[in-house]
Write a structure and sequence with these properties.
Blueprint: E1 8-12, E2 24-26, E3 39-44, E4 47-53, H1 68-77, E5 82-91, E6 101-102, E7 106-110, H2 135-148, E8 152-153, E9 157-161, H3 169-177, E10 182-184, H4 187-196, E11 200-209, H5 225-234, H6 236-246
Parallel strand pairs: 1-4, 1-5, 5-11, 6-8, 7-9, 9-10
Antiparallel strand pairs: 2-3, 3-4, 5-10, 6-11
Helix pairs in contact: 2-6
Length: 267
């Protein structure tokens, strides 16, 4: 009997490892080693969904040690064509408050030591990345936020730092001075690897803190891991509701260009 098609993949973040209760566990081998954990496959809103915790079941992989290539390859191998990447993130702007969901539309890479391509040769491959997030998935996320009446921002730029340390005050001032809204440690290379596999990909950033604090307000302290986890857990149910509302809104057949990303990209 043919295995039922898995349409949608979800990469979990801190404290969000049980999206699909009582579902089937699937182990996938990849040419790039083991993924962060086995996938959990089940159903959400009548759609088959694969969930993979990017940091591992016990949060044992820090951002710079996640095997991003194995994780994306595992999703593709399971038949997934659409990937949602929710994550905890910091705010770089006063108006982007903790508890807000930001549906990012741009990305700035400030990482240094990560394996960020499937194409190390001998075939030279240059994949377009001008718009790093799938417009169809972003539209579904925005529609879901609107239907739930939750605080959200329908666009924003996430700057991705290497980690595992947090930013200095000077770095954070530099990032915010560019007008960038969100800071995170996992969006790169997750987004570009999805594009190289011709997978649709969208990010939902849950704002947990104000990075190094907020200028002019000494009561708001620099971010700590404890604070990130506290706010994320407080908003976990809202994120669950958002994904449950978003997934049924995703078109069954893509009309975007994500799944033809390799056309004209190889020499």
């Amino acid at each position: 009997m043919e295995r039922e098609r898995v349409e949608i993949g979800v990469f979990g973040g801190s404290g969000f490892y049980e999206l699909i209760q009582g579902a089937q566990e699937v182990t996938v081998d990849t040419p790039f080693g083991d993924p962060s954990a086995p996938m959990t496959v089940g159903e959400i809103g009548g759609r088959r969904v694969a969930f993979l915790p990017r940091h591992g079941l016990k949060h044992q992989f820090p951002p710079h040690k996640i095997n991003y290539r194995a994780n994306l390859w595992a999703m593709k191998s399971a038949g997934v064509s659409r990937v949602i990447g929710p994550c905890a993130a910091g705010s770089l702007q006063p108006e982007v408050k903790p508890g807000t969901f930001v549906i990012c539309d741009q990305l700035v890479d400030r990482t240094r030591h990560r394996s960020d391509t499937f194409y190390d040769g001998p075939k030279t491959t240059h994949v377009a990345f001008a718009d790093p997030y799938c417009p169809e998935l972003r539209s579904a996320a925005i529609a879901a936020c609107e239907s739930l009446d939750i605080p959200f921002k329908p666009g924003g730029t996430v700057v991705v730092i290497e980690g595992p340390r947090f930013s200095t005050r000077a770095e954070s001032k530099w990032f915010s001075g560019h007008g960038w809204e969100v800071i995170n440690m996992t969006q790169y290379p997750e987004a570009i690897l999805a594009r190289e596999l011709e997978l649709c990909y969208a990010n939902i950033s849950l704002i947990t803190d104000y990075d190094v604090g907020l200028a002019g307000d000494p009561s708001i302290k620099p971010v700590t891991q404890e604070e990130v986890l506290r706010v994320f857990k407080e908003n976990n149910e809202r994120l669950r509701e958002l994904l449950n509302a978003m997934i049924p809104k995703i078109p069954e057949e893509p009309a975007c260009s994500c799944q033809s990303a390799l056309e004209g990209a190889q020499f």
